[in-house]
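Hi P.,

Sorry for the delay on this. The queue was packed all week, but I finally got your sequence through. Input first:
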Amino acid sequence: MITIFIRESSFNSTFQDADKAIEDTIVHMEAIGIKMEENLDFIIQYALRELFNNAIEHGNNFDTRKFINYRVDITREILRVSVADCGKGFDVSGIVNSQHNDSPTRCRNRGLSSLIDIGFLINSENGCINASLSLDGYIIKMEGVIE
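Then the structure:
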């Protein structure tokens, strides 16, 4: 697999800083010539928002002195987002399995379940949440690269 995009950074645990990190990631992708279909652009932004918001709320308990570290990797085959916060971690498999079977009208815990519905595989490793999506069927182009 050839990596076509990597962004690794961190931000303060605020929703405003999360929004800025998402914007910066998309701008960086565009700056290096990555073009993707509109629905994939939406999916990337949605996944980042859900994972960042979970880290701010549940991992860092809205403590603005804490940081969120993240990494976005894109190959022709896979989009992978890794997010680490300052929380104690949790058993992703238990939460994902119970959430995914619940009603879509529930008040809480829809984020990871909605990512699963989109097609993401979710796991945790060393206190980091990883979300991976197969890009089979999505169109990603690099300006100046002959396919």
